[in-house]
Amino acid sequence: MKKRKKITLFDVVVHIISGILLVMVLYPLIVVVSSSFSDPALVATGKIVLLPKGINIEGYKALLGNRDIVTGYANAIFYTVFGTIINLIVTLPAGYALTKNKVPGRNLFMTLFMITMYFSGGLIPTFLLVNSLGLYNTRLILLIWGAFSTYNCIICRSFFAAMPTELEEAAEIDGCNPLRSFIQIILPLSKALLGVMVLYFGVAHWNSYFSAMIYIKDDAMQPLQVFLRRILILAQTAAMNVEEGGEYAAAMAEREALIRYAVIVVSSAPLLIVYPFLQKYFDKGVLIGSVKG
Amino acid sequence: MNKKNKKGNGKAKSQSLKTRIWKSRFYYLMLLPAVAYVLIFNYAPMYGLQIAFKNYKFSLGIMGSKWIGFRNFTDFFTSYSFPQLMENTFVLSFYQILIGFPIPIIVALVLNELKGKFKKITQTVLYAPHFISMVVLVGIMTTMLSPSQGVVNTLLESIGLERIYFMGSSKYFRHLYVWSGVWQNMGWSAIVYLAALAGVDPALHEAADIDGATRMQKILHINLPTIMPTIVIMLILRMGQIASVGYEKVYLMQNNLNVSTAEVISTYVYKRGIVNMNYSFSTAIGLFNNVVNVTMLLISNKISKKISGSGLF
Known about the structure:
Chain A is mainly alpha-helical and 293 residues long. Chain A has 15 helices and no strands. In chain A, helix 3 (58-64) packs across helix 14 (247-286), helix 4 crosses helix 8 (150-161) and helix 4 (67-97) runs antiparallel to helix 11 (191-207).
């Protein structure tokens, strides 16, 4: 489109800044991956500065033998898959219905949703409510928790509002009800939106730990992040406080370090693998509508 | 009722409200799950907010517990931890806005100047940390900054400095919190501005070229003004959260050693409420926090309307 110009000082500066940003973001990730494939003794003494040393996969083997991790992983997959499906069923049709001017009370519903973005009952009243509904320590609460998101609903609404209405109008004349035309006509044309919503909701489920920490008591139902917190943070902080423990602490630290990096890689890999495929949708205006409200 | 009629278009006006509602029945069906969810999980807890003014006893329930007026609030305001909680929360929040708000804008302006494959790769990499969970983020920090095993301390020692226990120091908590947030979100938060930059009128750039403007001048006088409305809206939204430092990350970063700067209102609510079961007291703190937030949102919205003529509502 444009003529190729000479490389200017400006270009150089812009590329240097980008380069620094890239290194800043990538360095910690590379160290983690390298450490996960390295000799635990070298990891435990902080010898892995960039590339793996003493390559082995002991950490990953140890992970498979760790019951907590296996349970947590299975639970996280369950919560993410079914939780996301519930999210889509609740949020997408609502976003679509809100685009229809002819629906009486549309603005009332919109206001009802918007208020929840700024005002809430807060942690304790919500906790008491979940308790009184008998949802405490059930898998169900983690599936339906956050089933509706006003923010994502607004993104959906902007997306649907930008679609041409001729198709549904034609379908309506043929006697197709709006619910059916939404499922059979609108949704198949909304792959970009679906991709982004699956990603947003899926990531939120996969990464959440706080609701599980509050609402789930049994280890058998805990998702991966809760176990990760124990391994990555609680164990390490505890180890620091008995730093003087000498050799025993050192041996513990080594075994800990063995799975610590592998677990980071294994728990983050699914998202980091999926997301580049959906990235093409991000900049394409799916988000811009959300800002304008 | 009148309001609803006003909103209808000309054709619909001739129909009665009843027919219009009946005609919209499928749309109501689509809204039903969302409305049900919001009423149960968002609005029912608001009803429960009344325990902030009560002495809540589990056996008596929300309705049966005794009213005690504002005592929970006055207890909190006069408590020993109040000044420190406020300071920790607001300092952390302001620091976060001061650093975390402008950086994504700069990142977007820089990314916008890149082209082709390099741009694509840079974007992919910069967005990636957004998808890493809080637990893993804090886990990576804890490990990399560990005084005995962490690579950061290895590097510090190799250049002749002392090893530092970063995570266990109240001095470093705020910096770690804010800058790890920058690491995680500078790319992702830039998307909104990148989308706005895509709307810059190319004719403006062509005109500037004819006038001999440099690229830096074009950024400052064309790109930046174009995305200014977006910046303003994002800032209002951000100001509305000034009193709410999310508990998720702070709670993960907290330990006995750094708690003097790391305790913020939301984590305090969690500990006093869920852990110590002081339900009424922490509900009152949560409510106070929420009211401050909404007030800040309304004020910043008003200021923005006055200055730039645009606001959220």
